[in-house]
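Whether sequence alone determines local backbone shape is best considered at the level of individual chains. For completeness, the protein is quoted in full, as a sequence line and a line of structure tokens:
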Amino acid sequence: MSEPVVFENVTKIFWGSKRVVRALDNASFKIPSKTVAGLLGPNGSGKTTSFKLVMGFLKPSSGKVSVFGVDPWVRGESVRRRIGYLPEKPVYPDVPVYRYLRYVAKVRNASEEDVSRIVRLVGLSGYVWMNTRGLSRGYLQRLGLAQALIGDPELLLLDEPTANLDPLSRREILELIKDLKKELGITIVIATHILPELQEVVDYLLYINRGRVVESGMLEELATRYYVDAYYYIEVEEPRKLASRLVVEDYVRGVEIRDKSLVVRINAAFKEELLRVLSLPEYSIGIRRVEMLTSELGELYEKLSGSSR
């Protein structure tokens, strides 16, 4: 399947009475299918504008936006049927949760069974008869995710889903997004400026600053290019034996021993050296799986920010 979202030389200008704002400036990027993409950048960098262009709420001043192969400004209704959207500051009517979600389902031609399934998926089962006004911030975000998922979207857009939440609620929402990533297998794009917990979720990164795309790519690729630390999961028959070999390597920053596995922290630029050690006959026989878990997103963000100044 081709990329669900493609921007080609997109510029978006807002004309005000006192000043002109160039929200996007000749931006080009693609979001790969079935990835969890982090759309990163400081406040005012163009993240929300990008989402509104994808949804067909805005028309680009120049350039081309393609969503599922069509122009969302021209065919907005058909495009939006395939997208779930959680805006940064959603507003809900003060009605029971279930009544609101049933209304959303009716608009999107979804069944009551779909509503019940999604309520369970996002952990709202105990709150369906509570009015939206009585929900905590964390549970309002669960409601936002629920309404976005109704209709089985192929693309999920989440605008600052953990903003203004306490640490526990942020953790719960991120865990929920991780579950959605595993269970649904859809493309998810998360726009945020809050980094540390996001590194556990995203596998693709797009960094925007002042309306310009500074960098984009798979997280492992960017970690290697910018020499940041990465975490690799190694499923192995004798983890302690392998750990004792790896800890003497200069490029290894840390080793965590688990049951029949290791998590190894290295500078991503030394991935090939790690793979060389793992291919040695005394270790390779017992190794069942090697994969990158994540990288130090905060460190990568700092380097990208520095390169865009």
